Amino acid sequence: MDIVKSLGHPEEIMNLFxxxxxxxxxxxxxxxxxxMSQSLRTCYTYLNQTSRSFAAVIExxxxxxxxxxxxxxxxLRSLDTVEDDMTIPLETKVPMxxxxxxxxxxxxxxxxxxxxxxxxxxxDFPTISLEFRKLGQQYREVISDICxxxxxxxxxxxxxxxxxxxxxxxxxxxxxxxxxxxxxxxxSASQLADPEVGQDTELANSMGLFLQKTNIIRDYLxxxxxxxxxxxQEAWGQFADSLEDLAKPEKLQSALSCLNLxxxxxxxxxxxxxxxLARLRNQSIFxxxxxxxxxxxxxxSACYNNPMVFRGVVKIRKGQAVTLMMNANNMEAxxxxxxxxxxxxxxxxxxxxxxxxxxxxxxxVIVEKSAPLQPALQSKSTHLSPMYLSAAMLLAAxxxxxxxxxxxxxxxxxxxxxx
Length: 419
Ligand code: D61
Ligand code: MG
Known about the structure:
The chain is mostly helical. 67% of the residues lie in helices and 0% in strands. The longest helix is centred in the last third of the chain and has 33 residues, at 386-418. The chain is globular and about 70 Å long.
């Protein structure tokens, strides 16, 4: 089935075969768990059970960073399982979220009343907290601090809705920006990344916001069907009387306008993502950080102006995902990928979309910032690399789009004047 979906994309078919033949082992070597304690092996089992997208890239991290990030993931996944469990009453949930960081040092603390799919990590939390207490002090301090701040943020938003775009940024900061900030501190603490990586919390926060906003945009239907509302009212309120209304066929145009507005807002974080990735020196950390980001951009491009967001869950092809996983392992390749998807998005921007100008603007900024550096080095040789050419063409296409916008507007005003 995956092969069929990639029929029009020969590179993807090749990569799917390579992947099936274990080709991605180059990018993600097998975890040698011989020397592991039983409880640590159990933690890696929970990691693979609860995270489709992060397990493999976490297992391929170097040195003691691997275990630290694995435990960091399981601690926050446990906290999030409490937040997401709609069967836990508020008066129980709020104190649990606020005090969760203290459970890390209570060897027998566990929670057995969750109905969530990931409830295993709460029922057997003693195994996770045991491995947590075995980590180095520098890692435990980061994990406990981030767990405390995320728990308090989640509790804050249990009592209030995501209203303004600013509150959307704040909610995504609590549940994903703090993950980026914590990971960056773990990277620097492991000496596998420069201290500035852990210190520049703005960039680290953007890494999390781009991933979480993409998830929230993609999961519109699943979330609204489960009574969860993460789309900011400041956005949907411009197009409908309720968030659920966006799923009504007669509201499709309004729904697409709201969707495109949110995608455009999420794209604001891409320039920071590029700056963040360019600072990474360790290959395993680069893969771990870059792969989820380019997957998110591919998902955003697939969601943009796509009615399927209101009828199901839009997913990128398996062949596309494998190709991104195999290619996104150096900065030049990431620049090329981001330029390609910006071009794809550009082609979808309709003349009548209310966010058209903002979308074209941010795509222009992204294309400029992700223009491949290589050509400069090749200046000695006259010919310009194909990527340089396509970036130039993209910029040309963008300015053409701008011009046609302004002309249309001028004519419009002309028309306006006429009526
Ligand atoms: C570099 C590399 C990975 C990064 C990063 C920078 C910055 C941020 C993140 C990963 C986190 C991205 C989160 C996007 C997926 N959204 C969720 O998982 C939501 O839950 C958020 C709260 C718990 C966060 C758990 C987490 C996730 C990824 C990690 C990690 C911790 C620790 C280390 C590495 C990666 C979403 O949960 C979906 C679900 O319940 O399945 C939600 O409830 O909104
Ligand atoms: Mg959650």
